[in-house]
Fold each of these.
Amino acid sequence: MSSFPPFPAADREAALAALEDFLPRAGRDYAEQRNHDQGPSHRTNVSLLSPWIRVRQLPEWEVVAAVRREHGATTVGKFIDEVCWRTYWKGWLQLRPTVWRDYRQRVARLQAEAGRDGEVQAAVAGKTGIDCFDAWARELVETGYLHNHARMWVASIWIHTLKLPWELGADWFLRHLLDGDPASNTLSWRWVAGLHTAGKTYLATRPNVRRYTQDRFEVTADFAKTPVDLEHSPPPPVQPLQELPAVSAGGRTGILLTDEDVSAAAWLTAEDAPAAVAGFFLAEAYEEWGTADHVVRFRKEAMWSALGKSADNGLFESVDRLADWLKATQIEVLLMAEPPVGIWTDILPRVTRVCRESGVQLSLRRHGWDTLLWPHATHGFFRFKKVIPQVLARLDEWEG
Ligand SMILES: Cc1cc2nc3c(=O)[nH]c(=O)nc-3n(C[C@H](O)[C@H](O)[C@H](O)COP(=O)(O)OP(=O)(O)OC[C@H]3O[C@@H](n4cnc5c(N)ncnc54)[C@H](O)[C@@H]3O)c2cc1C
């Protein structure tokens, strides 16, 4: 029997209960203790909210408003910064979508070459002989979660000590983390590898692991003392965010939810209530990636919960079913939260085509949180951070 805690439930009720439970600890406790990885059964020093934030079962603005209500504005700055790191990475990738495309192409090439297969298999099975790494490899697969510090150490050992390609490590994380997120994950791995900030890599050290894991591991293995020198080109120039044109004519409106933002029905307001709401979850795309079952289950359950667990609100897994629904509901305008760069980069063109063939106008919308913050992810986080007060000033409006 597994000694790990069970996977959390994805529904809104479970998300709200987890937020409620964390709120008292979101202030000074979080700021002082969050860096410690005390093991899977001792996680009260961090929020564990990321799986729900990832799919916006708990949208960022709701979480930030809740911690400010509980503690006032001053003591929750650290926690709010961390939530905004997520937005920073998303904005950064949205402004440079070719970084995602190039990374996915490299994963496909490396998988086809299979040159380091044995070593990669040993690493992901937790059989490297490095005690802490092996324990985290098992924890990742069995719980879908790793503490932030453990993610940094694992990525560092993978890249600099085991000298494995960072892209395959990032892919492994993305397929198993419940919060697996194209932007936060890919860009964090790039940062550890030294590809994000010129001259900066992240090297795990034994004293640091021992200290922040409360000596849970012996850590007898040697970690790399110098980083691998990866071929590095400057990031591509920033591309402006896609303009999202207004709907050219009114009409019977529907909403299509995705697992990128299950909260969207609440903020995608039409002039009249939508005639129908449905969800689209292309399970085959996740399967093609070899995504772990627990991740697929979590995403689907989150969508079911957002759709009111009602059979009237369909959750479609193929474009044919979506086309049938568009026809049956006679929708003329389909509203959708713009899916960020990531798995939906390949799915969106299929949905666009179905809409075009069905004579339906697809209208993508971006939430104010993203509209305000994403354009500022042009440089580092510290410049980006200066805009945070602007979103804090609008929380009341978004909370409705
Ligand atoms: C190599 C690596 C890979 C990562 N992959 C992912 C990923 O796929 N998805 C993901 O959501 N996060 C990723 N992170 C960031 C971070 O580790 C997780 O967001 C965090 O550990 C989630 O746990 P928590 O909810 O308990 O976080 P808390 O510490 O409680 O933080 C609260 C929230 O802030 C956000 N957050 C916190 N730290 C970060 C960060 N460094 N970057 C971005 N957002 C952050 C998350 O939404 C999190 O839920 C990665 C970090 C590293 C180093």
Amino acid sequence: MEIVAVSFKSLIKSMYPCHSLVPHNRLGNVSWQCYYRKYNTSQHYIRQYYPVLRNGGVLCPQVKSQRQTFVHFSVNNAGNRYLHTSSPKCALPPALLLFLRPLSKFAAILFGRSLRMWWKKLPADKRLFMLEAFRSHRYLLLGLGASIGGGICYFYITHLEVDPLTKRERFIAFSDDQMKAMAKIEQEAMLSKFHGCVLPASHPVYKEVAKVAMHILESNMDIDKVKHTNWSLIVINSIDDKNAFVLPNGTIFIFTGMLTVCNSIDQLGIIISHEVAHVLLSHMAEQMSRLHLHELLMIVPIIILWALFPDGVAMFSQWLSNLFVNTLVHLPFSRSVESEADEVGLQLAAKACLDVREASAFWEKMKSLSDSESEEVIEFLSTHPAYDTRKKFLDSKVPEAMKLREKCNCPALSPLDPRTIIKTEISRKIL
Ligand SMILES: [Zn+2]
């Protein structure tokens, strides 16, 4: 297989190979190589690790994928058995669940609009008769409304769960099986979208990323959900995508563009830990549950809106209310779960003895690579916190993570703080 070198080559040339390697940080002895890099103009050297392939490159943007395969990690020795302590959930098929939200909204609009049209065409005496009938049955209608409201409240209360890791109470309306089935649909869609770009499990880059992921998982086997999830990894060969994400079934997607941003194993490990944390905290199930609950609660207001107002006014009001709800409810929630995954991910990384200070250094670097001003302005319209917010938040969590590292008897970290180093590098523009 031909490997095309794209980055780190010139950087590595300016460094000195390590004489001794720390077995823990190497995570295997195939491709991660250690180099001393001169820090600043002083006599200090910093030890860094780079995934170096046979010809000195690190990634392969033009490699043709021979087989679209990926491996399931062998950390799960409990098969598909899930610990399920929550109350039983409704068992709607996942394909129906995916269409239910837009379908319910569309049906509510159609019903409200039809109601308005029907009322318009009704003769005056019939209208009076209908109003009278409505008045005389008002208690029955109020009782019906209260029963539906009570049913929704009951459903909400019986689907509240306390997360074992964060102790936060959250509303989860979907079972693990439903989430896994939906994840399978999403996974197949992603695999067909990136057809031809999925690195095979035999690819050196894939192997290296898998080693880091395995190390994170193996270091956190005391967490039940880590043990009982069928983790798998898909590396997508797309150098322009600096991204990674995870599906609720434990499938982690990493784009090669993200690997080019990572300076070290520690940074890659922190990214993977963040994705693992999303699965452990059932963030996708929680977000979907909230969205479905919101849609359910909006059915009656939408019917009333379309029944009372002309199409243009109803459409504008609905657009405005969606904008408000999205900006004031959904997006802040999305950012809060990202911060939660950052915090829990940092703890997972600490237990794997990674250098937790690299988390903040990574976001400092991401910030320097982006148009930072525009990014700060649009944070409130974003699903993720701004890079600077993430960096500061992770910085505040580093002391706690360092204590956890100590508890896990991890080797001492370099006295040179990567956060200071990255700042110096940015100011000198030598990233
Ligand atoms: Zn995330």
